[in-house]
Each structure stands twice: as C-alpha cells, then as structure tokens.
Design goal:
alpha/beta; 6-stranded mixed beta sheet; globular
C-alpha cells in the first residue's frame, strides 16, 4: 500500500524542471546497501540529465562500498557545499533523528523518497510506494525516462539484495525479483553487488565468537543480545558491522523476535526484528522507525540495560 502524498509525475516534474539546477541528496546515518545504492544511482541519473549534485554523508561510509561511492568519499564526513540549493532529496528514511537534521531547510523544494513506514518530516512531496527497497522506487519512478547503464543498474541491484537480504526477508515480493531481473539484463555487476553485501571480515567472526554466547532467551519466542563498546573495539570492527549480527541471530529456530543493543560511547544502537510484532511502532517510542518486521534507532544518554527493559516491556505489551 502506497503511503505517498504525491505521484511519480509530481516528482518527475521537479527532477526534470530546467529551473532546478542544484540538488543535494542525503540518506540515513550509517548508510547500508539500500541507502548507498539509492543515493549513488540517483546522483548518477541526475548528473546525466545535467544537474549539479552534491551528497551528504554525516556519518562515515564503510570501506566496502568504495567501488560504488568512490574511494575519495569513503570514511569521510561530507556536509553540504552550498548554503542553499534548488532541491533537497532525502532517501531511505523519513526520520529526522536518523539523518542530516536540516536537510529540509537548505533548499527551495524538498522531496522524500522512502519505503519505511514512518515519517516525522512535514513534506509536501513524500513518495513512499512501500517497495522492498528505495532503489526499486527510484527504478519505478524513472524507468521510462532514462537509460539504466551498468553503474546505475548495479546500484539498484545492490539496494534490493541489501534490504531483502538476498531475497530472504519478509519484504521480498515479485517486484523485487522483477526489477533485479531487469537490472541484470541492463548489465548490473551482480558479482560486485553480491560481494559487497556478503562481505564479512575476520574481525567480525571474532565479534561473533565473543558475543553470541551472551544471547538471552526471555521466553521461547523472544531473545536479545547486548554488545558492549569494548566488545566492538577489542574485535576491531565498526559499529555498523556489529549491527549485522542481528541478521545472523534472526534465523534461530523458533525465535519470533530479536532485539540487538550495541553500546557506543554515550549512545545505544538498537535494531529489532520480528515475524509478528510491529517493530516500527515500538521503535517510534525511541525516535526511531523502519518497517513492520524490521526497525532501528539510536538512543542517547541512557543506560543500555534500562533501555533494554523498556523495549522488552513494550514488546511484551504488543
């Protein structure tokens, strides 16, 4: 079901408007494969139609995405180069707490293109087709307007396999397979995309060895795992990489709901997966968001164990 308050035509009229010359694009903090694939695909598309495009990364992009993002933008914070643009676009999130907070104030017009179930921005142009990934929405938006070259097709394919976890997640549908098929027909480098998505380091294995024994089973259906900051630092992995652990433990037999909490200085990174609970509604209580079956947030200045108790209480109520 579409959550949009505008149409594809509305967005295309803005993107192809000759008076819209300067564009800035942002996505969520700690960008994943969907965010990276979407932002890089749209950047390439807009540059190909003559737009001047800047990107915002207010948290560093992982080294593994360097062949997509470009080596010069890896491990760097990138803020807007201009004080005012003709258009600002926010991709793959509608949650202010999860992105560059002033993204809606640095341009004459503001667009959100997303596929999650929550949005706390006031936005005249909010496009949310509830697709399996934001990259699919970009494809559906522009597939009859531009040529999908190898790079753009690779980016869109990466976005799909990232948010469906190679077609294993509950959000996978026929359209995800169809768009992937079309991207491969358009010479998407699926070997590159698959290697990026499936990439894990030896240090990540160390973190698994160190932390998986600490999984707590609350009841036969629910479990949680707390990862302390020292676990991450001593294993020499990034906090983003540590978050991937939930994609391992979510497949434990007979477990319905998994909660992962990662301590990071004065904040706690929370990721939640469930086959039955509305994770998005629960994470909204902590300024987060996401999908019905998958959501996340970052909570500042709160004890990790107190936060765990609050989340479990809400999960039990639901």
């Amino acid at each position: 079901m579409s959550l949009s308050n505008c149409t594809f035509e509305d967005i295309n009229n803005i993107l192809f408007d000759n008076n819209v010359k300067t564009i800035v694009i942002a996505t969520h903090n700690s960008p994943d494969g969907d965010a990276i694939g979407s932002i890089c695909a749209l950047e390439e598309i807009l540059k190909n139609i003559g737009k001047e495009v800047d990107l915002i990364f207010q948290t560093k992009v992982s080294e593994k995405y360097k062949l997509i993002v470009g080596e010069k933008r890896i491990n760097k914070i990138i803020y807007p180069k201009k004080s005012k643009y003709d258009l600002a676009i926010l991709l793959d999130t509608g949650t202010r707490n999860m992105t560059y907070r002033n993204i809606d104030k640095i341009a004459k017009k503001f667009i959100i293109i997303d596929h999650h179930e929550s949005c706390d921005f006031k936005c005249k142009y909010y496009l949310n087709n509830n697709d399996s990934s934001t990259g699919i929405t970009i494809y559906n938006l522009l597939n009859d307007k531009i040529i999908f070259n190898e790079f753009i097709s690779t980016c869109i394919y990466l976005s799909i396999i990232s948010d469906t976890d190679c077609f294993k997640n509950n959000n996978t549908n026929a359209n995800a397979y169809l768009v992937s098929f079309n991207m491969i027909k358009n010479n998407a480098n699926f070997d590159l995309a698959n290697s990026i998505h499936n990439c894990i380091s030896r240090n990540y294995i160390k973190l698994l060895q160190r932390t998986l024994k600490n999984i707590v089973y609350i009841n036969k259906n629910t479990s949680y795992l707390i990862i302390r900051e020292d676990d991450v630092l001593d294993s020499n992995v990034t906090f983003k990489e540590a978050g991937k652990i939930i994609d391992t433990i979510k497949f434990i037999n007979d477990i319905d709901t998994v909660i992962l909490l990662i301590e990071n200085k004065n904040s706690v990174i929370v990721r939640m997966r469930s086959k039955t609970l509305d994770c998005c509604e629960i994470m909204k209580n902590f300024n987060g968001g996401g999908h019905h079956n998958s959501a996340a947030t970052i909570v500042y200045n709160e004890d990790i164990y107190d936060l765990k108790d609050k989340i479990i209480k809400l999960a039990t109520i639901h």
